[in-house]
């Protein structure tokens, strides 16, 4: 299948910048998008969306709790459906697409990884904070031994300069990652910063290791950031239908695929079929929960805060009767990383106490 279903040909343009480039899309509606629905996707929702993505020719589909394998917990929110069932349900629909799962070492374990592999997983994406690549080693090694495609996922990539991020990517590649992603968890990067990071990884990694980009939209540049990544040498890009995902959400897969088509890239995806999955299935299933670039989501990107903190901050704001925006601004001064969700409560309590007369 090719992406040549573009209805308009711009004959005045020069050669499109990605002409002939093959770009591998991973759709994370059913994983990162799970944050948007507080991890309440039903097995029916997963069956419908994964069938649609498979039909549209999306090559890779990520499915699990929003925080990855083992994420369903008091700390991260209980999922409606256990990972096992989500994975089995998606597997039954994905006749052509590869099935991927995310794993954060410590949230998910080697045992979770083995179970997922038994249920037909094709790809494991091992995520760490961008300074902690070494803790992905045993999961990447095990992934290779299980015959999976292995991906390293460097979260909060805005917190390191390009050369240091590239050194961490090298650690993941040496541990067996076949693709290493720049992950803009806070949606804090702008296109020029994505370009320098992707270019640094491309230079530091052996040619057989690919570079990927996972963009969030908190500064409104999810799709432009993904395009900048492709132009700087990334050949794996993430998106989610309608941009469903933590914070202001991700680069919207259907928008990204249409834009890549205009740039001359080959994704193998039927653009119109994908637009229909987003507009019909995902919009219906997630009505009322589609991500918005509202004040709090914008502040996440502006202050460089992990997108998955949004719902935790909303809950703390309600519980302690303080403004969400004040929590995010105060968190910005602490430079917290994923896993430090407790700090949100500390900050909310401190703000509430400051308001009380002593
Ligand atoms: C909690 C995992 C997180 O949602 C992973 C991710 O997609 C990111 O860091 O952007
Ligand atoms: Mn994300």
Automatic annotation (TrEMBL):
Its EC number is 4.1.3.39. Pfam families: DmpG_comm, HMGL-like. Signal peptide: none annotated. The active site is at residue 35. Substrate binds at residues 31-32, 185, 214, 306. The record marks 31 as: Transition state stabilizer. PANTHER family: 2-ISOPROPYLMALATE SYNTHASE 1, CHLOROPLASTIC-RELATED, HOMOCITRATE SYNTHASE-RELATED. This is 4-hydroxy-2-oxovalerate aldolase. It comes from Micromonospora radicis. The lineage of its organism: Bacteria, Bacillati, Actinomycetota, Actinomycetes, Micromonosporales. The gene is dmpG.
């Amino acid at each position: 299948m090719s992406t040549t279903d573009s209805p308009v040909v711009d004959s005045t343009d020069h050669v499109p910048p990605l002409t002939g480039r093959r770009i591998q899309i991973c759709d994370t509606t059913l994983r990162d998008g799970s944050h948007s629905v507080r991890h309440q996707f039903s097995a029916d929702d997963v069956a419908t969306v994964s069938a649609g993505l498979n039909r549209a020719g999306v090559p890779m589909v990520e499915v699990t709790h929003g925080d990855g394998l083992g994420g369903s917990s008091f700390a991260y929110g209980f999922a409606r459906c256990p990972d096992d069932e989500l994975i089995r349900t998606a597997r039954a629909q994905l006749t052509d697409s590869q099935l991927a799962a995310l794993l954060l070492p410590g949230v998910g374990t080697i045992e979770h990884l083995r179970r997922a592999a038994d249920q037909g997983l094709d790809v494991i994406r091992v995520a760490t904070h961008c300074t902690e690549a070494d803790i992905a080693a045993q999961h990447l090694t095990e992934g290779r031994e299980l015959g999976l495609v292995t991906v390293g996922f460097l979260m909060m990539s805005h917190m390191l300069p390009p050369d240091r991020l590239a050194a961490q990517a090298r650690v993941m590649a040496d541990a067996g990652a076949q693709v290493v992603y720049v992950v803009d968890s806070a949606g804090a990067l702008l296109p020029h910063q994505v370009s320098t990071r992707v270019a640094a990884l491309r230079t530091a990694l052996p040619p057989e290791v690919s570079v990927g980009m996972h963009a969030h939209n908190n500064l409104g540049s999810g799709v432009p950031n993904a395009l900048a990544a492709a132009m700087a040498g990334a050949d794996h890009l993430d998106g989610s239908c309608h941009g469903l995902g933590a914070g202001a959400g991700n680069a919207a897969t259907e928008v990204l695929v249409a834009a890549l088509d205009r740039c001359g890239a080959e994704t193998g995806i039927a653009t119109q079929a994908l637009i229909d999955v987003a507009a019909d299935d995902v919009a219906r299933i997630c009505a009322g929960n589609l991500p918005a670039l509202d004040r709090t989501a914008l502040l996440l990107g502006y202050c460089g805060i992990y997108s998955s903190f949004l719902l935790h901050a909303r809950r703390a704001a309600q519980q302690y009767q303080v403004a969400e925006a004040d929590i995010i601004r105060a968190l910005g001064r602490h430079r917290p990383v994923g896993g430090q969700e407790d700090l949100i409560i500390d900050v909310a309590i401190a703000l509430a106490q400051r308001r009380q007369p002593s």
